[in-house]
Design brief:
The structure holds 2 protein chains of 2 kinds. By secondary structure, chain A is an alpha+beta fold. Chain A has helices spanning 18-27, 72-76, 102-106, 140-144, 161-168; strands at residues 4-8, 38-43, 59-64, 82-84, 90-92, 113-115, 120-122, 150-154, 171-172, 184-187. Chain B is α/β, with parallel strands linked by helices. The chains are: A alpha+beta, B alpha/beta.
């Protein structure tokens, strides 16, 4: 029983793709850019001419399921295939999914993709059925990250590292105006 | 509250790194294996080999199959992380294109026509050819050239072909990599040292792209150290984007920037006066030389394109910092002035007193490993190497590739090279002007390649000996780092697949096959050996003379490690290496710094400063006597000039590729399918070039075709594309047909201090197809 969440010290990201590869290998995700539970999104551009280049707008954002506390995907599924597990992670009853793709359309973060092998929609579940199921306390993306920019832990545990970092540092969530209440936080 | 738009569609179209339009999609995307709970599981410590770093990891093995590679928290060097290449190591083991069986060539060299043979047949074939060659060359063992790129086991490979077989002609990656940097440091402060990035509060990096060409621990430390980072580069790299200050610079002019820093430091007495007084030799000569040439900021601006006030500012900040470091780099050699440029950087560090102290170039205290003794025969007829002729210093170990190749193909070497043994070295991709390499290999009577992949070089072999990958073997224990010294061991994760073997087992087989026949050739020509035979008899002369080529391999690597480590360090250290993959004195009490980062050595136990006698040599007479400069000097020929309608071609790497070794890795190819040529966006507009257009790039020696990436991140008269693409071997089914090979068009030229190939001097023309 936990309430898992993740925080990103996103400015440290060098877009090295280690997290993407670790995720694919750990969770058996198919190759191909369209198949991924997580990705790094480049925001902003280098501006001006080469000799006077402005680079400060360039950002690398860690993208994956935002673990909304009010999850649009859950509401949208006509088969009630999406549920929240005991650790607060949005999960899927695979046998109930018949690929209506309603969840994909409902997700404002574009976090889901079609898992062709299992014929279901898939997304990041914090390695719930691989690492966490084995009692490990880190996700594949977190432990491998060269920048160590990912904080993962239990929001209900006052002493967890993620709670400490959220208490001491300013942070924001993506598309907060939609009221989805994501549990993924970006540290300023 | 900031709102960021997210969209998978945008993601697909927006990033050139994904190259969605560039190549066809993969035939089989279902290659990953989800980790499970249900299978039999082992976690085995290993050391990565996807690049030169050797980061430590634990391999998850389920039912004898590797399903996941995880970082190892005990290794000070790699700081509990694995990069994308490290994670993709699984696909190196299970690559369907791997070399699986010994092969003997049937068709023409390069035709790719081979037959599968047994190990014994392969060794027998090599023996027949080699005995004939050595006999024809009257026991001059140096007619065999042998080479090995970066990596473990190189020492043993040298012991076999150099020590035991007796050839002087060993070549490695040093002369197409960083020998100028090593040499400049060694000659100036008497040691190659190590850079303490984590300890520095002000870091200048010239061209080294630490956030795309990852080096542990430097790249990781830069992310976690609160230091000012200044980056000079002719291209806006990821490192430049992340820098506090990015100073765009003309290619090959970093020496001018350095000379100006020295000038300002001396003129305004910004340098560490006490340190200079205590440690410098010939400081007066340096001072006089630099002031006489008036290497002012204004002067440097005219060479580098960096504004004079910026040079002034950075210089002042650098010398005012407590622990400044001018990063000496770790990559290929760029231009004719490369040695002097590296030396100038060492001198700048020394002027700031950043030698043998925290945040500087440190000497530290590496753990010394005992060597296993073997007897090396003496061959009277074996001649010396010739590739250092005409080179001022050069590495007597790894030599000079381009000089060697020139002398072989022009037949100006004092004796012919008839055979080559090539291991983990992709000659047909790794050095400028591949056509010349091909010519060299075509001249050989015997080419043997030991490798894991059917590389462009393997396709030139007469005999291919399949080596196992790094996850299928135990290697000899290695000592790492000077600041936080540790030992690390590559353990065997799974048994070698197919009929591949470890290098040691390959050399053992070869040694057993070759020992007596090659001894007999020596006995025919070598008078000392003949005397020895007369005196001792054949058997004893063979044994006592060290002619058993497989001597080192009487015990297997596992037994050798156990003997060596327990004898020198005790069983506890050995046990730590077998279970944790690493040993260092504080391994049991590493401090958790939070979020999976650790403190390894406590601050007060790190070897920042050690008791060591050394001098800083400003003036090196031997350089002046041999046509170089005793003191770093600018010459007009170093000025950056590009003809109209031409571009200076520079090269580098993507974070997802290691030279050419990882190019067929299906996971990495999925991330970075091909390379693109970076062309300045304004120039591209004028030439009507758009992203994805096919571009012909021509130099004086060849032409390649590559897709365009117009960007403002490169200067108008410079183009760039990444090394590691454009493979010619169609046996590499994932890599073949992707992108262009830089070394096909880079003109071959080497600098004269270390004989290193310069990579950034070629001008090219581009044309939209």
């Amino acid at each position: 029983m936990a309430n898992y969440a993740m925080a990103f010290d996103y400015k440290l990201c060098i877009n090295c793709h280690a997290c993407e590869v670790a995720c694919k290998e750990e969770n058996g995700i198919d190759l191909g850019a369209k198949n991924h539970r997580l990705w790094i999104q480049e925001e902003g551009e280098t501006k001006g001419d080469f000799w006077n280049l402005e680079v400060s707008e360039v950002k690398f954002m860690q993208m994956q399921c935002q673990e909304c506390q009010d999850a649009p995907c859950m509401k949208a599924c006509p088969n009630d295939a999406i549920y929240r597990d005991a650790n607060g992670i949005v999960r899927l009853y695979k046998e109930k999914c018949d690929l209506t793709m309603a969840c994909m359309k409902a997700c404002p973060y574009d976090a889901r993709y079609i898992d062709e092998k299992n014929r279901v929609t898939d997304k990041c579940i914090f390695c719930a059925d691989t690492r966490l199921a084995r009692g490990e306390t880190t996700t594949a993306c977190q432990i491998t990250c060269p920048a160590k920019l990912r904080y993962f832990g239990d929001l209900d545990d006052e002493n967890s590292e993620i709670n400490k970092v959220l208490k001491t540092r300013k942070h924001f969530t993506l598309k907060s105006e939609l009221g989805t209440k994501p549990k993924l936080f970006y540290l300023e | 509250m900031k709102i960021i738009e997210t969209s998978r569609r945008k993601f697909l179209q927006g990033s050139v790194s994904l190259c969605v339009y560039a190549t066809s999609s993969l035939a089989n995307p279902f290659i990953t294996t989800k980790t499970t709970l249900k299978r039999n599981v082992k976690n085995i410590p290993y050391l990565c080999n996807m690049c030169r770093n050797k980061c430590a990891g634990f391999a998850r093995v389920e039912n004898s199959t590797i399903t996941k590679l995880n970082p190892n928290q005990y290794f000070p060097k790699s700081r509990n992380m694995l990069c994308p290449k490290g994670n993709a190591g699984i696909q190196a083991v299970y690559d369907k294109d791997r070399l699986k069986y010994p092969l003997i060539r049937l068709g023409k060299r390069g035709s790719g026509n081979y037959k599968r043979v047994t190990w014994d047949e392969a060794n027998e074939y090599i023996k027949e050819k080699l005995v004939k060659i050595i006999d024809e060359q009257k026991d001059n063992r140096s007619t065999i050239a042998y080479c090995n790129g970066e990596g473990f086991n190189k020492d043993e490979y040298i012991k076999f072909f150099g020590g035991k077989i007796g050839s002087a002609n060993f070549l490695d990656e040093g002369s197409i990599c960083l020998n100028t940097k090593l040499g400049a440091t060694q000659l100036t402060i008497g040691d190659i040292g190590e850079m303490d990035v984590a300890g520095s509060d002000y870091l200048i990096i010239s061209g080294a792209n630490r956030y795309e060409s990852l080096i542990t621990p430097d790249s990781v430390d830069m992310l976690h150290t609160k230091q000012k980072l200044v980056v000079l580069d002719p291209r806006c790299t990821m490192t430049a984007i992340k820098a506090d200050e990015f100073l765009p610079i003309n290619p090959g002019t970093d020496l001018a920037f350095c000379l100006s820093m020295i000038y300002i430091a001396i003129k305004d007495k910004l340098y560490n006066v006490e340190y200079v007084k205590e440690k410098f030799d010939d400081f007066d000569k340096l001072k006089e030389h630099i002031l006489l040439h008036k290497y002012s900021a204004k002067w440097a601006e005219s060479k580098t394109h960096i504004p004079a006030e910026k040079i002034e500012q950075v210089t002042r900040e650098f010398f005012a910092a407590s622990n400044p470091l001018y990063y000496l780099g770790r990559r290929s050699v760029w231009s004719q002035n490369d040695f002097q440029f590296r030396r100038a950087m060492v001198l700048i560090n020394a002027l700031a007193g950043s030698i043998n102290r925290k945040g500087g170039i440190i000497f530290g205290k590496p753990i010394k490993l005992n060597q296993e003794e073997i007897i090396e025969p003496l061959y009277n007829a074996a001649e010396g190497r010739f590739d250092l002729d005409g080179i001022i210093y050069g590495s007597s170990n790894g030599g000079s590739w381009l000089n060697f190749r020139d002398k072989v193909i022009s037949k100006s070497a004092p004796y012919p090279i008839k055979a080559m043994f090539i291991r983990k070295h992709n000659l047909m991709q790794n050095m400028p002007n591949i056509a010349k390499t091909k010519k060299m290999l075509e001249m050989m009577d015997l080419v043997v390649v030991l490798d894991t992949m059917p590389s462009d070089t393997a396709m030139m072999a007469d005999v291919i000996l399949p080596e196992c990958t790094y996850l299928e073997r135990e290697d000899m224990v290695v000592s790492f780092s000077r600041l936080e010294p540790s030992l690390a061991l590559r353990n065997e994760v799974i048994k070698p697949l197919y009929e591949s073997k470890t290098m040691q087992d390959i050399l053992k087989g070869l040694g057993k096959k070759l020992s007596v026949p090659l001894f007999e050739v020596s006995a025919k020509y070598d008078e000392d050996l003949q005397d020895s035979i007369t005196e001792l008899g054949k058997v004893k002369a063979f044994e006592e003379g060290g002619y058993d080529l497989a001597e080192l391999y009487r015990n297997n690597v596992s037994e050798r490690n156990k003997n060596l480590i327990t004898k020198q360090f005790g069983y506890k250290v050995y046990s730590s290496l077998k279970t944790k993959g690493v040993w260092h004195p504080f391994i049991e009490k590493q401090k958790n710094l939070g979020n999976n980062l650790y403190e390894y050595y406590p601050e007060e136990k790190r070897y920042y400063s050690v008791d060591k006698k050394y001098r800083v040599k400003c003036y090196i007479e031997k350089l002046a006597k041999n046509g170089s400069d005793a003191l770093p000097t600018w010459h007009d020929s170093y000025d950056f000039k590009v003809k109209e309608n031409s571009f200076r071609m520079i090269t580098g790497r993507y974070v997802t590729s290691t030279q050419t070794a990882s190019t067929n890795n299906v996971m990495l190819r999925d991330l970075e399918a091909t390379n693109h040529i970076w062309i300045n966006d304004s120039v591209a507009k004028k030439l009507d070039i758009e992203e994805g257009d096919n571009i012909a790039v021509s130099s004086s020696i060849a032409k390649v075709v590559i897709k365009a990436y117009p960007t403002n991140k490169i200067a108008p008269n410079v183009v760039w594309f990444a090394h590691g693409f454009g493979m010619h071997s169609d046996e590499l089914t994932n890599a073949f047909g992707n992108g262009a090979c830089d070394n096909q068009i880079i003109e071959d030229s080497f600098e004269k201090v270390y004989g290193c190939a310069t990579m950034h001097h070629t001008d090219v023309q581009i044309r939209k197809l």
